């Protein structure tokens, strides 16, 4: 009888212990079940924030690349305009020399035509007309080159202003990036 009583007591004690263990396990399990849900929600929010940051970084990278590309294109454009302007200025200098030479020849022809006899006068008049035509052609070329130089100088100013604008935007963009 003592054995039966002891066995019942032990069985009851084991049952109580198992019950308490089950309750404790259920409490831990339910706490863990809520905790992973909260952690999962936090992870979802963090992943969404990372996605947003990655999208912003990708957009910023694209903008930066576009600005750098535009700046490089503007550099090339400016270099081309500068080369063309230098060529026009060289043409202007050469044309000014040609014009001066033509004017000197014209003056010499005029002086020789004044003192020429009737036989030589007709030939002198033809050379004088050709000299005047050459001088007028040099004058027209000089005016065209001056107009082209003026247009290129204006284009260079506009391109440099555009370059400065793009460069300022790039600098502002760089300053906006967190270090």
Descriptive notes:
By secondary structure, this protein is an all-alpha fold. It has a single domain (51-176), classed as Helix Hairpins. It contains 2 helices and no strands. The two termini are 83 Å apart. The model is unreliable at 1-33 (pLDDT under 50).
Highest CATH level, the class: Mainly Alpha
Gyration radius over CA: 47 Å
**Mean pLDDT, nearest integer?**
79
What ranges have pLDDT less than 50 throughout 5 or more consecutive residues? 1-33
Secondary-structure arrangement, i.e. CATH architecture: Orthogonal Bundle
Q: What count of helical segments does DSSP give?
A: 2
Topology at a glance:
Layout: H1 2-114, H2 118-176
Concise summary:
Helix content is 96%, strand content 0%.
